[in-house]
Each structure stands twice: as structure tokens, then as C-alpha cells.
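Hey everyone, long-time lurker, first post.

I ran two proteins through the pipeline my lab uses and got sequence/structure pairs for each. Pasting them in order. The first:
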Amino acid sequence: MAEHGTVGLLGGGVIGGGWAARFLLGGYDVRLYDPDPHAERKLTEILANARAAWTSMIDAPLPTEGRWTIVGSVAEAVSGVDFVQESAPERLELKQALLKEADEAAASDVVIASSTSGLLPTLLAERMVHPERLVVGHPFNPVYLLPLVEVCPGARTQVWAAERAMSVYHSVGMRPLHVRKEVDGFIADRLLEALWREALWLVNDGVATVEEVDDAIRFGAGLRWSFMGTMLTYRIAGGEGGMRHFMSQFGPALQWPWTRLMDVPELTDDLLDTIAAQSDAQAAGADVRDLERLRDRCLVAVMQGLRGVPYAAGETLASYEHHLRATSPD
């Protein structure tokens, strides 16, 4: 058995493959169920990227990498494992069916987590016999690098399930965020959705190209957001008066027409063609693996820089490295 046990994964796409890499590099064995005939190739490629990123980012002895197996059914993936993570496409009926099947096959004390980006855990658990062990464990892409995972219990989830899920995530260097109340989209995606809607309007209205939208973030506020977030940024902007002064100075701007947040542009063929063409131009011929490797190198550089402070995601990385050094037999 691997250092930490075995995880059953349902779905091996971008998110499921990222989970597989995170768990494998963190010392877990993985059993993956995905009907995609290309699942093995995709996971091999994702794992290669993840290994390169982890070995360049983490300055501590890594656990022995786990072993992975692709299995032919949900029951094979979840039988006898220590934790289950579902990462199927974002369709309620599909997820409910998979979770029901997993619930029937996994031991009753095994936590089952869903990677859903916004579906409520109470709805996901409707067909389960043991809904008390279902939580949302919503990660961010790439799962093997970004430490945040939102943990949201449902109406019938018991405390032990959420606590166990957070413990598992913490064991592979993640930063669990306990979502205290069920809400569509949880916390992070609600914030991201607001930015995404505004970005669509800026492109739709010809104010900016997709690359200019990205430039507005990556050369400005995004650099602050990577370690400070939104609320602390605004508090500092208030100077010595803090958040109260900031709100009194800039609060009236909330009434100004600086956003079209409450409206959404119609996703016409013309708008979709424009966005797709501009995005292709921005990629400049790079394929998805090239872009993933570029993204990974940039994220590693940011987190390593923050580790030296240590602060925000850098603190999470430094804490995980300390754990690895303390538990390494070397």
C-alpha cells in the first residue's frame, strides 16, 4: 500500500487528471475510472507535467510516488479505498448516478467528495443511501499546483466527513477552505463568474480584445490578488483610515455604471467566433500542453517567491515542505 493509502477517482479529465497527479505525488495510490479511451494517455501527459512542476517547486523530500490503475467500473474504483473523489462533467443527473453507484460500493465510513464547481451537495446526495458522507471538494486548475480546495457540506453531511476530507486534502499540501453555508457556485466561482461576465461584455462591446482583458489583470491587480486577495487590498487602499475610510471614499462608486454585472451578453455565433479567433491569436500556435507547462512554470515561480516571505500560497507550500522533511525517512 502507498504511504497514505488509496484514493478512488471517478473521472480523469482536466480536473480528475489533476487530482490523480496531486494524490500520486502526495504518496497515495490511485484507482481511476473514466470511460474515455484516451484516459491513460491523458493521465500520463498530465502526470509528466505535474512531476516537472513539483520537483522544481518543492524543496523537501517527496514521498514515494503512488501507483495508478485505470479500472473498468465505478465499483472497482471505490471498493476498498480510503477516499473517493468524483470529477465527472458538470451535469447533475450524471453526478447523482455516479455518486449513487459509488455510495453502494464503497465502505460506509469512506468519504465521497465531488469536484463540482457549483452544484449544491444536498442535491448531489439525493440518491445516496449514506448522504452523511458526501462533501463538495472543489479544487482549482491545475489541481496539482493550486492549493485551494473549497469544502462544502450538504444539509445531511456529518461533521466527521468534512473534517476527514480536509485532513486528506491537507496531507497532499492543499489549503482547504470550509464553506460554511451552501450557495450556488460556493465562494471562489461566484467571484470569478462576476469577472467573467464583465470580460464578455468588454469583448462584446468592442472595448477590449481577450488579450487586453488578460493584460488588465496579469499586469495589475492579479499580481496583488495572488497573495493579498480582494478585501485586504481594499483595506490597504483606505490608508490609515482602513476599510471604513476606503468605503466612505469609494463606496459611492458602487452606484456608478462601472459594470454590467446584472446583465449577460447573448452568446451569438458572431461573439463566439470573435472570442475564439482572438484566443487562437493570443495562443500563437501553442498547443494545450505547451500552455499548461508555461502556466505551471509561472505558478511555481510565484509560489516559490511567496514561500520566501512566507505568506498566502507560499505559506501553504512552506508548511507542506516542513511536513515532508519531518516525515521523510531520508
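...and the second, right after it:
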Amino acid sequence: MIKAAEAVLADALKLDVEARAELATELLASLDGPADPDAEAAWEAEIARRVAAIETGTVKLELWEDVKRRIEKDLLGR
């Protein structure tokens, strides 16, 4: 790490937890690059598609407890 970054880090670590979290969020967001201009419309279309599938009964819903149990079994071997 270069000295300038070390100095910024040292100053950042003096901040309270909330300020550090906000700073970390902003720093991570700066790595994402430009926002996709079509993303919001694509998500709206996907949400509408999923709601329609639920309303027409073409998709089978599962209880959270069952999904959680399956995930734990698959990932944790429980």
C-alpha cells in the first residue's frame, strides 16, 4: 500500500463505526463502474414475469423452512 493510502486508512480507522461503514460502502461502489441504464427496466420486467407466474400458478412456491433446510443440507451437510 502506498503511503498516501496508508495515511487515508489511518484517518478512516479513527472514524466511528457508522462513518467507516458509509466510507466503505462508497469505496466499494466506486469499483462497480458505470450503472447499466437498462438494469431498472430489466428488473421491473423480471419482477412482473415472476408475479405473473405466481398468479397463474405456473410456478410452484416453496415454504422458506423447506428451502432453508435444503440449503443447509446441500451446503453444510446437515
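Reply from user beta_strand_b:
Welcome! Quick read of the second one: Residues 14 and 41 are 41 Å apart (CA to CA). The mean pLDDT is 94.
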